Amino acid sequence: TTEIDVDGGIDQDIFDINEALGLDLFEGDIKFDGMQER
Amino acid sequence: NSIIGDNYRWPHVVPYVLEDSLEMNAKGLILKAFEQYRLKTCIDFRPWEGEKNYISVFKGSGCWSYVGNLQEGLQQLSIGANCDRIGTIQHEFLHALGFWHEQSRSDRDDYVSIIWDRIQPGKDHNFNKYDDKTSDSLNVPYDYDSVMHYSQNAFRNGTEPTIITNIPDFMDVIGQRMDFSDYDLQKLNRLYNCTSSLSFMDTCSFELENICGMIQSSDDSSDWQRLSQVPAGPNTDHTNMGECEDSGYFMHFNTSAGAVGSTAILESRILYPKRGFQCLQFYFYNSGHESDRLYVWVREYTSAHPNGTLRLIEEIKGSPASYWQLHHVSLNVTSKFRVVFQGTRGSGSSNGGLSVDDINLSETQCPHHVWHIRNFTYLLNTSPAGTAGRIYSPPFYSSKGYAFQVSLYVNGTTDNPFNLAIYLYLISGANDDQLQWPCAWQQGTMILLDQHPDIRQRMSNQRSITTDPLTLSDSSSTYFWDRPDKVGSIASFPNGTTFMRGPGSGTSAFLTHQRLKSRNFIKEDSVYILLTMEDISHLLSTQPSVSPTFFMNTSSANTIKPTFNTSATTKSPMRPTTTTRPVTTASVPLTEEPEMDVPDSCPDNPCENDGVCIMVDRGPECRCPAGDDWWYMGEKCERKGSAQENTVIAVSSTVAVFVVMLVVTITTAVCLKKKYSQVKENGESLNLEVNRW
Q1: Is-catalytic flag, B92?
Q2: What value, to the nearest 5°, has the Cα angle with vertex B454 and ends B451 and B458?
Q3: How many cross-chain Cβ pairs, A to B, lie less than 8 Å apart?
């Protein structure tokens, strides 16, 4: 029987997913608004 | 750790919008994540109805959130590709509610070691820690279990972990994305001053003598007994499995004595429903005779029946078995009530009786099906990795009538041997001719149950798969979720009956064996996989009819006009067109996730100044636009107020008061001076007179 692995065989954490997308967020998954950045 | 500052808090009911860009599977999972918040905290989520601040969940690039309520109107939260798992969604919403990551707290070096030379160049800043002026750990101990903790390999440059836990046993614990930990909940409940939750009602494992306020009825011929073992079984309770001496109790109805038909009734305390639907879960042990019965009733109190009326919900029967079995009973009670357990002795000869333990009652939906896998340790020890070690669930039917099945790779796939792998398949069923194909927007959820006695402390592991009718198979010649007898292959049940099994979708990284052996996933050498397949096609369009972008970036809101989303009505959800009643094996009424309460537009929009009209209690109501320093008010948003206007009023009032006071002061001074001069003159002339005289 055909089976699709939605994770592609890897248990990707949030940070791995974002890193693979080339995102460089604060602590991997946090965005800041202008005031917080300052 | 929470961000410091009350301005970062959300109201207890958080307004949200699910943008249409979200994947369907993610939409369904976001609603499931909200249910966990409703069960375990006092935070609730409601579709946006024009509130000033709300969370807009969309499919961006990656999984991310802002921290806390930024008070900026629309606040985005991204659930992108591969972010569609419940733990990830809970994690991002915890950020939005005001939480940072666990390992950034000031005392983290007491608990974990950061291996700096294993971190990718330029990524060191991700391991900063913050003092108690920046974040507050809310007086809760460091939490390796937190859903907010990095995993051991975060930002590594090679193959070695970047975080080492000072207690080695926690190496594989950090980074769990299953569910809230106990301390996550403690922190969230402290931050938001929670004292109750929306959907939790009661839990009871009969460890205390007061048996959770349950009462023995006087309208019966026998009583339930609180015991820790029965010679005919069970030998132990289910809560502690006999591991704790002088503890571990359950309630038992002895059917080995008494007359045929004798009954014992155990009633819960009075409960007050909020939502109108409940799920009762409990473990049941039958060491009596197959003719013995357990009846679950509810006693409902209404103004017409203040003493309560009984309504039978379910009759539980079956052959005696030498193990505890999990049962779910769906209730739909809207007035105050008690749950009633009635044991009845049957006509057969019994050496034991009926026992119940670990009861949980919550206002949640019950899972549709339960797959109980016994002798699990044996399976773990003997199953090879790969397809030879794969076991299949019995066949089940979804609420729409689709037949499906689940497989579990006990020792993983050959590529991933130290994990549990799980896959979902459509299989040929009795309703196939009446169903829509390819199967559209059915979300199958597979939950490996953490069998903790208290539902609030369970950290079950779950994944969901949604059938997208346009997904093509690898060969691109067929639709993946088409009729199993068209795209599947022949298979057979253990009794030899053949059927067709379609292709499967799932994950080879469902849960590591290390985590599987933690918590209470395996109890009495059993695991439970809870299965639900529900129609989520109503989530195809979830965006409100008035575009939420109206309130985005309030500083420039003057220039942004409301846009009405007409596409919501022109989209055609592919709803299955079942013409005959489908066959299902569900023994309980199946209800779906409550539909999104999208604000209805008013027939005659009475609002002025771009106010949004919504129907509240079937009446139109205007939600007026507002910015940081301006707002519209009045029934039709006809009047404008602004902070500047208020300032002008305040300043001019102050000046006016000052001028009046000045005039009064000057007048008084002048009068006094005049009076003083007169007195002085009079005094001098009197002196002269005296001298002359």
Answers
A1: yes
A2: 55
A3: 116
Q: Which residue of B155, B491, B505 is in closest CB contact with A4?
A: B505
Nearest CA in chain B to A24: B123
Rounded to whole angstroms, how far apart are CA atoms B384 and B131?
50
Amino acid letter, residue B74: L
Residue from the list A1, A23, A26 with its beta carbon closest to the beta carbon of B61:
A23
- What is the bridge-based pairing of β-strands B293-300 and B250-254? unpaired
Q: Which residues, in sequence order, are CB contacts of B347 under 8 Å at separation 6+?
A: B260, B289, B291
Choose the weakest-confidence range: B109-123, B166-180, B551-565, B603-617: B551-565
- The answer to whether residue B551 scores a pLDDT higher than 60 is no
Burial class (CB in 10 A: 0-12, 13-18, 19+), B589: exposed
| Phi and psi at residue B170, to the nearest 5° | -95, 5
**Helices B86-97, B182-191: crossing angle, 10 deg rounding:** 30
pLDDT given for residue B617 in this prediction:
52
Distances (CA, A) of B687 to B162, B637, B676, B679, B681: 102, 76, 16, 12, 10
B122-159 pLDDT, tens digit each? 999 999 999 888 899 999 999 999 999 999 999 999 99
Can you tell me the distance from the alpha carbon of B65 to that of B97, in angstroms, rounded to the nearest whole number? 10
**Nearest residue of B to residue A12, measured between CA atoms:** B82
What confidence tier does B688 reach under pLDDT thresholds 50, 70, 90? low
Chain A residues in contact with B408 (beta carbon < 8 A) = none
Q: How far is A4 from chain B (nearest CA, A)?
A: 5
- Rounded to a whole number of angstroms, the distance from the CA of B508 to the nearest CA of chain A is 6
Over the stretch B398-412, which tens digit does the pLDDT of each residue have? 999 999 999 999 999
Question: Cβ A5–B82 below 8 Å, yes or no?
Answer: no
C-alpha–C-alpha distance, residues B48 and B549, integer Å: 12
Report CA Rg, chain B: 33
Q: Are B249 and B286 in contact (CB under 8 A)?
A: no
What pLDDT, on the 0 to 100 scale, is given for residue B567?
Answer: 30
Q: Measured between beta carbons, which residues in chain A are less than 8 angstroms from residue B463?
A: 6
Testing the interface with B: which of A19, A25, A30 to mutate, by most B Cβ within 10 A? A30
What is the spatial distance between Cα B593 and Cα B539, in angstroms, rounded to a whole number? Answer: 10
Q: Which residues of A touch B (CB under 8 A)?
A: 1-7, 9-19, 21, 23, 25-33, 35-36
Contacts of B61 in chain A (CB under 8 A): 21, 23
The strand pairing partners of B105, in sequence order, are B130
Residue B232 has pLDDT above 70, yes or no: yes
Look at residue B138 in the predicted model and tell me its pLDDT.
97
Inspect the interface and report whether the beta carbons of A30 and B66 lie closer than 8 Å: yes
ipTM: 0.96
Which residue of B82, B130, B178 to mutate against A (max A Cβ within 10 Å)?
B82
**Token pair for B62:** 């990656």
Q: What is the pLDDT of residues B626-665, one digit of tens each?
A: 665 667 777 777 777 776 776 677 777 788 888 888 888 8
